[in-house]
Specification:
The protein is an all-beta fold. It is built from no helices and ten strands. It has one domain: Macroglobulin (MG2) domain (Immunoglobulin-like, Sandwich). The N terminus is likely disordered.
C-alpha cells in the first residue's frame, strides 16, 4: 500500500526523533486523529496540525511547540505561537484560523526553550515544517 504523502515521515534529526509524523487536516475524529487530510484551506476555516509523538519514557516531560506563519511571518492571531506539555506517546493537536489568504506554514519544535524565537532552518529544536495554502473564502469577497 502506498503511503499517503500528507503523512510522510520526518527526516532524521534529534528533534524529529520523538515527533514521528506531522499532518495538517480540516478536522479531528472524536478520538483526536486527523480527518479530512488536505493542504488547501479557506480563510476563516480551522486548520488542524496533528503531531504523533513516540519514544516518551514514563516520568519525562517535554514541550512541543508550533509557530503558525503566513507568507513567512508569524500570523497575527491568538495562538500563533503555542505549546503543549507532552508526557506520553500519542497525538498532540493544535489549531488556528487564518484571517487572510497566502502561503501557510506550521513549524513544529521539540523542547524549544521558552523565549527562543530562532527561525533558522537548521534550528536544533525544529522537528518539522509543514506547508499549506490558505485561499480567500469566496463568501468573503
Amino acid at each position: 500500500m502506498a503511503q499517503d504523502p500528507l503523512w510522510s515521515p520526518l527526516a532524521s534529526s534529534d528533534a524529529a526523533r520523538h515527533v514521528v509524523a506531522v499532518v495538517v487536516c480540516a478536522g479531528l475524529t472524536p478520538q483526536g486523529t486527523p480527518a479530512n487530510l488536505t493542504r488547501e484551506f479557506q480563510t476563516g476555516q480551522q486548520v488542524y496540525l496533528v503531531c504523533t509523538v513516540e519514544g516518551i519514557t514514563a516520568g519525562e516531560r517535554h514541550r512541543l511547540s508550533v509557530r503558525w506563519l503566513l507568507d513567512g511571518r508569524l500570523v497575527q492571531v491568538a495562538g500563533a505561537h503555542s505549546s503543549a506539555l507532552v508526557m506520553e506517546n500519542g497525538n498532540v493537536s493544535f489549531s488556528i484560523t487564518y484571517p487572510s489568504s497566502g502561503a501557510g506554514v506550521a513549524r513544529v519544535y521539540w523542547d524549544e526553550p521558552v523565549g527562543d524565537n530562532n527561525d533558522f532552518p537548521n534550528d536544533n529544536f525544529l522537528a518539522h515544517t509543514r506547508t499549506f495554502t490558505i485561499h480567500q473564502d469566496a463568501n468573503d469577497l
